[in-house]
Every structure is written in C-alpha cells, then in structure tokens.
Write a structure and sequence with these properties.
About 55% of the residues lie in helices and about 5% in strands. It has 14 helices and seven strands. Helix 1 packs antiparallel against helix 11, helix 2 runs antiparallel to helix 3 and helix 3 crosses helix 7. The longest helix is centred in the first third of the chain and has 41 residues.
C-alpha cells in the first residue's frame, strides 16, 4: 500500500512538473517571438529615427514661441484660442518627447546628440526622479498593487485589490478636478513615488528639484510672460492659464487610460519567472488607444501605442506602430488578449473605474454596477451615435485563395489588419489611391449605383461578400 502511494505521489509530482514545463514552454516560445520583433526593429534603428525626434523637438519649440506670440498679440477670439491651442500643444509635446528620450531611445543611435542623462523638459517633474520612479519601478512592476505606484497614482483606488477607506468617496470629484492642480500634484507624485520605491523616509530635501521645477513653471506662466506683455498682462495671464489647463486635461487622459481600466489585469505580487512571462504581464495589464494618427504622432509621442512601449521601452515612438502589427500576430497565434479601444471609449471606461472603486461595494455590488454601466453604454451608443449592429461578410483574396471575415462597421483595411495582414496603403483617407485594388465581385458602402471595378480598401466597408484581386 505504501509503495502504491509513493508511486502515485511520484506520478502526481511528475505530472505537475510536466504541466509547469508546458506553461514555461508556452511563455518562453511566446517571449522568443516577441523578442525577435524587438531585435529586428532595433537593428534597423538609425539616422531616420534621430531625424524624426529632432523634427518633433523643432515643432514643439515653434508652437511654444508662436503660441505665446498669438496669445499676446491676438485681436480676436479666434487668434486668442489658436495661441492657447499652440501653447497647450507644446506642453503636451514636452512631456511626450521627454518621456521617450528619458527611456534612452536615442542614447546609442549614430549621430544623436539627445541623451537621457542630460535631457531637460519644460514641466514641473524632476527628471532624475521620473527616470527612477517610472522607468525602473513602473515598467518593472506594472499593475502590481503596492509596487507600481503609477497604479492609482498613490491616491486613487482603481481596483478591488486595493483597500477601501472613507476618503475614497472623494476620489471622483478629485480626479475630475485634477487638471486644475496637476502641475504641483505630478511634481509631488513623481518624487514621492521614487522615495517609496527606494524605501526612503520622508525628507523635505528629497523635494528640492521638484519644488524648483514647479516654481519655475508657475513663475514663467503667471509672472514672467504676463509682465513682459505690459498692458496685456490680464490677457496673457488668462491665456497661459487656459493653455496649461488644456494641456493638463490631455495629459491626465493620455496617461490614465493605459493601465487604470477595470478590464485589465492587476497583480498582488510581481509573478514573472521568465522573460516570456514578463511580456505576457505587460500585454495583459496595458491598453492601447486609437485617435487621429497625425495628432498621435506629433502630440502623444507613441504613448497611445502603450502595449508595445511597455514591451520595448527603448524603441523610438515612430517605430511602435510597426511593432504593434507584429505583436498582434503573435498574440493571435498564442490566443493572448490584445486590448485596444478608441480613446473616447477608454476615457469613459477610466471614469467608470474611478467612480466604481470610490464606493465600498462588495463583489456582488460591483457586478450590479457593471450591469448598469453596460446598459448605459448601449443606450448612449444607440441614442446618440445611432450605431447599426455590425454584420460580418467574407472576403476572398484571389492571389492566395484565402478567405477572411470582414466587419461592416470597419474598413476592409482595418478588418484585414486585425487578422494579421498588411495590405498596401498610403494616406488611409481615400485620397492617394495607394490602397486601391480590383474588385471581382461584391459591393461596398461606397457604391450607390453601378458596381465599381476597384475599391479603396482604406475607407470602403463591405455590404456583401467580396472577392478582391489582392
């Protein structure tokens, strides 16, 4: 009997090890394919990537100067608001550019004079504190409660794993009002995050650089430039304040949506046992969001392609979209959820998360809230956006003979890209005709009368099954 039990125990142990090995094999194989994407792109980095960031830096400086001039010299509201938009845009770009530079994206590129150790940005956060708190701790312990201080920004409860206290009842109005005081808040947060991550005790001396940066931002915007404007002091003061508010609103929602979403995975401890498992955690705990491509390129600096940024933090922002196409294919192959939302939907999800966890509800209460939220979302979409229920059509590609599903709510190009294909395209607006292909049969929403022999797949949506010469 004892021998039999020992054999059974040995067999059970062997099976458990075998199961663990299968899990490790899966993670390692997944991780190796993700790693190959990084190596391929990294080896291609060079002068063109340096020129891209230099172009953005010049543009940021230009709209900074022009924005201040327009605010001071405006003679009508239109010119005044343009100045506010330019100055606010500069502040958004300052963060987006600095964020990538301080990840070391350009440290080793040939011909680059841009280096993470010498970069100075025009905002209140201390650069050295940001590099430690963000690069070393947030990226290492993403969405790990208590280790990743970006998860809730030391103040907000955004997950059921975080302990509730009565002060969280105030977090919704505080979060909504955060753009009004984000300049001192982020300065405090970044330095405090670094201190907490390094287990340092509170000391006012830790905040010297943060206080200096905050004072400079306030002095420049609310004293220096308004005083230089002389009799235009009130107008410049107001314009600067509105530009900072505009930038702060974008800043909060360009950062908050990436990890603080109730549908993303969070952890009680850092679980990685291999590089592959690290990559898996970054994908499961991070959200991409989509918006206007030009706006994202110039003002968001690749931050919206956040999953790939977390996988490859030292890749320049202009390479992240390229990486995303390959990462999606690998995720599909291994059945790993890849999360992406339109920016406005991601913002709505973020606000719901903030509201939901401000309340001391049990798991059952949270489920009730989720049901109310989903019903509300469907009602808003149906009433205000009048979205028709998407239907599915088939497309057969003549050259390969393969068949794919197309959604009637997306362009043919978008549907094919989501399934790992990379058809040729140019402007994505139906202007350049680079994506135009011959249509053998079927119809799209662009054909109101007689069927057309070709179709611009970047803007055309299917209304029937299609056969394309592609």
């Amino acid at each position: 009997m004892q021998v039999s039990e020992k054999k059974q125990q040995k067999r059970t142990t062997t099976e458990q090890k075998s199961e663990q090995n299968r899990e490790f094999t899966y993670a390692d194989a997944f991780g190796e394919e993700i790693e190959q994407i990084y190596r391929k792109i990294y080896q291609d980095l060079g002068e063109k990537d340096v020129k891209h960031i230099e172009k953005l830096i010049r543009f940021s400086k230009k709209i900074h100067k022009r924005g201040r001039e327009k605010i001071a010299n405006s003679r009508d509201l239109e010119s005044f608001w343009k100045g506010i938009g330019m100055l606010g845009g500069h502040y958004v770009m300052e963060f987006a550019i600095g964020h990538m530079v301080m990840h070391g994206c350009y440290d080793d590129l040939p011909g680059s004079k841009i280096h993470s150790s010498t970069w100075k940005w025009n905002n209140s956060m201390a650069e050295s504190d940001w590099i430690v708190g963000h690069n070393q701790y947030h990226h290492t312990h993403t969405n790990v409660i208590g280790e990743d201080h970006d998860f809730g920004f030391l103040v907000f409860r955004v997950n059921e794993k975080q302990k509730w206290n009565p002060l969280h009842l105030l977090q919704t109005p505080v979060f909504l009002g955060l753009p009004l005081f984000v300049t001192p808040f982020m300065s405090w947060f970044v330095t405090t995050s670094k201190s907490k991550s390094e287990n340092k005790s509170f000391a006012l001396s830790n905040y010297t650089e943060a206080i200096q940066n905050t004072c400079k931002v306030f002095f420049d915007n609310y004293f220096k430039y308004p005083l230089q404007a002389g009799s235009k002091f009130p107008k410049v003061l107001l314009g600067n304040a509105l530009a900072k508010l505009y930038a702060n609103i974008i800043f909060i929602y360009m950062l908050g949506v990436e990890h603080l979403n109730d549908n993303l995975t969070s952890y009680n401890e850092t679980p990685d046992r291999s590089r592959g498992e690290y990559y898996l955690r970054q994908i499961l705990s991070t959200l991409n969001y989509t918006t206007d491509e030009k706006f994202a390129e110039y003002f968001l600096g690749g931050i919206n392609i956040h999953t790939e940024h977390h996988l490859f933090p030292d890749l320049p922002p202009n390479r992240l979209a390229e990486a995303a196409k390959e990462v999606k294919k690998v995720c599909k192959k291994y059945d790993v959820p890849y999360r992406s939302l339109p920016w406005e939907v991601a913002i709505a999800e973020l606000l719901y998360t903030v509201i939901k966890y401000s309340l001391p509800f049990s798991e059952q209460g949270n489920k009730g809230l989720d049901e109310v939220w989903m019903n509300l979302r469907r009602t808003v979409e149906n009433v205000f956006f009048k979205r028709e229920k998407a239907s599915t059509h088939k497309v057969t590609l003549q050259k390969s003979g393969e068949t794919y599903d197309l959604s009637s709510s997306q362009s043919i190009l978008e549907s094919l890209e989501k399934q790992g294909l990379q058809p040729r395209y140019g402007c994505r607006k139906g202007t350049c005709r680079a994506c135009s292909v011959r249509k053998v049969s079927g119809r799209t929403n662009l054909e109101k009368g007689e069927p057309q022999p070709s179709v611009k797949i970047c803007i055309a949506k299917p209304t029937s099954d299609l056969v394309l010469e592609l």
